[in-house]
Design brief:
Order of helices and strands: HHEHEHEHEHEHEEH
Distance between the termini: 37 Å
CATH architecture: 3-Layer(aba) Sandwich
Strand order of the largest sheet: 1-7-6-2-5-3-4
Length: about 250
């Protein structure tokens, strides 16, 4: 019975999430595009996503579906112009990170750009993981320069237990070309919920505690520009060791 109630509450939260995104996309976004300059549009819309997702995460916490623990949350709130990388254990990792990190732009899968509930908002703020590397680096570098944080899940999909870890190097090339530091964040959720292959309504029988660990930054080093490929491999290995040996 308790698991059924939690599934119902999970469905309620995701319904609110979808309907809210749809209303914002149909009413608020057109008004922003009509009355705001291009630079202001991105600032307003990224802020809108931040606060909407903050409310969604807050609702899930109030309903005891999840809980969030961060030792130094103020560090996340003060991040500016960082490449934020994280592991990806669950469906709502991106929502949690964006809710905790202001001025953030996330690299998301292309299917979200076609999702009827969030596409109008997402496509004007976030970056698709299907664009060419050149376009991605150019757009992301410009956003970093303007003080936005770029959130990337370098595994490219949700973490699979008992499988070898492979990180895509896009974030490493972005550091090489932009010169901005990398902020690794380790996400743990216990008991595990909403993992790869798990349905949105399966949130277990008790509150899942999400712990965000802010790891030491990977600081840009000019020597990395000598050989882009070898430098990217070095940065990627350092990131992998940081995230999965913490």
């Amino acid at each position: 019975m308790k698991k059924f109630l939690r599934s119902f509450l999970s469905g309620f939260c995701f319904s609110i999430f979808g309907i809210g995104g749809l209303i914002i996309g149909l009413i608020f976004v057109p008004l922003v595009l009509l009355f705001c300059s291009r630079d202001t549009q991105k600032r307003v819309l990224s802020g809108t996503v931040h606060y909407l997702w903050k409310a969604f995460v807050g609702l899930m916490c109030i309903l005891k579906l999840i809980d969030i623990k961060i030792k130094n949350e103020k560090e996340l709130q003060q991040l500016r112009g960082n490449i934020v990388i994280a592991n990806h254990p669950s469906l709502i990792d991106v929502v949690i990170l964006v809710s905790k990190i202001p001025r953030s732009i996330c690299v998301v899968k292309d299917s979200l750009f076609k999702n009827i509930f969030v596409k109008s908002l997402i496509r004007r703020v976030y970056l698709s993981n299907s664009v060419s590397p050149e376009v991605f680096i150019k757009q992301a570098s410009e956003d970093l320069q303007m003080g936005y944080n770029i959130i990337i899940f370098p595994e490219g999909t949700r973490t699979q237990k008992h499988e070898s870890i492979h990180l895509h190097r896009g974030f490493a090339y972005l550091q090489i070309h932009s010169g901005h530091d990398i902020q690794p964040i380790l996400i743990e959720n216990k008991p595990s919920i909403l993992g790869k292959g798990s349905p949105w309504y399966d949130v277990g029988k008790k509150t899942s505690v999400y712990t965000l660990k802010i790891l030491p930054k990977i600081v840009f080093n000019k020597k990395f520009t000598v050989s882009n490929r070898q430098s990217a491999i070095s940065i990627t290995e350092k990131a992998k060791e940081s995230l999965f040996s913490a």
